[in-house]
């Protein structure tokens, strides 16, 4: 069973596990693009600035499945992950709960956070929001900045665009409605203020209904004003102009949490902690400069980016225009089956570019994910450039690529992850 929204199965599964999701505080983040970056900023800042044990759950994994769950910014050990996974799968089968692979993965994260006594967990929504399995977490009760009952302390919503229309809805408003489903009673919410007006209005309405204080962040320069002083986006190692919005969301969330930490735990965050956290943020596979070493020892410079939809493609295109001065580019592209290719390719490809379409193998723990057929990709790619080739093996492509163009690997995070894993295994 692949993607199937709903909270009944995950609720039943967690009940059999002793409700491990009720023992930590949470930050819950939804959105179409940028939510992983926001989670990365948050966990890095919290690890640098507090004595808390910080958990993070993001999906899909980049290289290995246990990468989805981190403790203090380090992936959990494979043995711990496998042990918890075995226990949860046994319960799922014994009680015939019928949980999906993603629901089992979510339960693994909650159980590990419980076992490891995680103080604060940063949770990225898997798909949508309102019926995503991460949305089983409940609001914290906070009075006068004092935590009386653990739960979700703050929610965040990043940029919302068209994606997964077959599941979330065919209009931006329908998709936004799904994402806004993470907004909870009396829990403050932070939203990317550069979203379209109809999205912002919907989020305002949902926030009002839930008595949630709603903050819209839309910085006008790289200098982000916070209660700690000005934080400069230029100190972030994450590339791309859009990271200004993502960092602003993360910093506003930290602003909201700061007085709660002080009142409840007597922990004072400082500007130095936050700057250090921003500086140490890592989120590979997104505008990542990477050196591929061939079997003969030749270094090839690549840009890796998981861009897979229209809004991510626009952001990648903007970075390309600012970085490569119109030079021809070789794109190595694979796309998940079922994706509309036009929003990705139409904004990205120019006639002088070369496209090498490729594939990726089975995705661990996600048997429903498959790569688009190479011939279909070639046919679609020829609409944008006549220089199109196909090769199912990304390593073979890189080993034999002889021209001196800039090389960008994109179209799917699964392709990027496979490349990194294969290179790591060499």
UniProtKB/TrEMBL annotation:
Q: Which GO terms describe its cellular component?
A: cytosol; mitochondrion
Query: Which Enzyme Commission number(s) are on file for it?
Result: 6.3.2.12
List the GO biological process terms: one-carbon metabolic process
Q: Which GO terms describe its molecular function?
A: ATP binding; dihydrofolate synthase activity; metal ion binding; tetrahydrofolylpolyglutamate synthase activity
Q: Which reaction does it catalyse?
A: 7,8-dihydropteroate + L-glutamate + ATP = 7,8-dihydrofolate + ADP + phosphate + H(+)
Question: Which segments cross the bilayer?
Answer: none
Q: Where is the signal peptide?
A: none
Q: What class of enzyme is it?
A: ligase
Q: This protein's superkingdom? A: Eukaryota
Q: In which pathway does it act?
A: Cofactor biosynthesis; tetrahydrofolylpolyglutamate biosynthesis
Q: Which UniProt keywords apply?
A: ATP-binding, Ligase, Magnesium, Metal-binding, Nucleotide-binding, One-carbon metabolism
* Record flagged with keyword Metal-binding: yes
| Family the UniProt entry places it in | Belongs to the folylpolyglutamate synthase family.
Know the name of this protein? Dihydrofolate synthetase
Record organism = Wickerhamomyces mucosus
């Amino acid at each position: 069973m692949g993607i199937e929204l709903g909270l009944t199965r995950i609720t039943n599964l967690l009940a059999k596990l002793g409700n491990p999701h009720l023992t930590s505080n949470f930050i819950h983040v939804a959105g179409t693009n940028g939510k992983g970056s926001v989670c990365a900023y948050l966990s890095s800042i919290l690890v640098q600035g507090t004595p808390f044990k910080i958990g993070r759950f993001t999906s899909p994994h980049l290289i290995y499945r246990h990468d989805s769950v981190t403790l203090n910014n380090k992936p959990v050990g494979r043995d711990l992950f496998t042990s918890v996974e075995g226990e949860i799968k046994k319960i799922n089968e014994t009680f015939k709960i019928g949980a999906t692979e993603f629901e089992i993965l979510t339960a693994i994260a909650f159980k590990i956070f419980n076992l490891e006594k995680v103080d604060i967990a940063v949770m990225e929504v898997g798909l949508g929001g309102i019926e995503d399995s991460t949305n089983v977490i409940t609001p914290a009760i906070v009075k006068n900045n004092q935590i009386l009952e653990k739960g979700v302390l703050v929610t965040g919503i990043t940029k919302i665009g068209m994606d997964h229309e077959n599941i979330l809805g065919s209009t931006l408003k329908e998709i936004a409605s799904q994402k806004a489903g993470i907004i909870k009673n009396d829990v403050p919410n932070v939203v990317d203020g550069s979203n379209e007006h109809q999205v912002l209005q919907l989020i305002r309405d949902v926030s009002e209904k839930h008595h949630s204080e709603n903050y819209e962040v839309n910085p006008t320069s790289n200098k982000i004003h916070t209660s700690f002083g000005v934080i400069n986006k230029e100190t972030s190692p994450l590339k791309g102009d859009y990271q200004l919005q993502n960092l602003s969301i993360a910093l506003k969330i930290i602003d909201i949490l700061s007085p709660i930490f002080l009142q409840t735990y007597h922990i004072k965050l400082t500007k130095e902690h936050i700057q250090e956290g921003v500086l140490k943020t890592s989120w590979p596979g997104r505008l990542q400069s990477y050196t591929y070493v061939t079997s003969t020892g030749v270094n090839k410079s690549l840009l890796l980016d998981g861009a897979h939809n229209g809004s991510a493609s626009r952001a990648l295109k903007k970075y390309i225009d600012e970085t490569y001065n119109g030079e021809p580019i070789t794109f190595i592209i694979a796309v998940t089956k079922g994706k509309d290719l036009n929003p990705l390719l139409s904004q990205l490809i120019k006639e002088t570019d070369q496209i090498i379409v490729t594939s990726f193998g089975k995705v661990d723990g996600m048997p429903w994910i498959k790569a688009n057929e190479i011939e279909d990709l070639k046919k679609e790619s020829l609409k944008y450039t006549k220089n199109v080739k196909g090769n199912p093996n990304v390593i073979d492509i890189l080993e034999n690529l002889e021209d001196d163009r800039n090389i960008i690997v994109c179209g799917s995070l699964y392709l990027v992850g496979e490349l990194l894993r294969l290179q790591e295994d060499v």
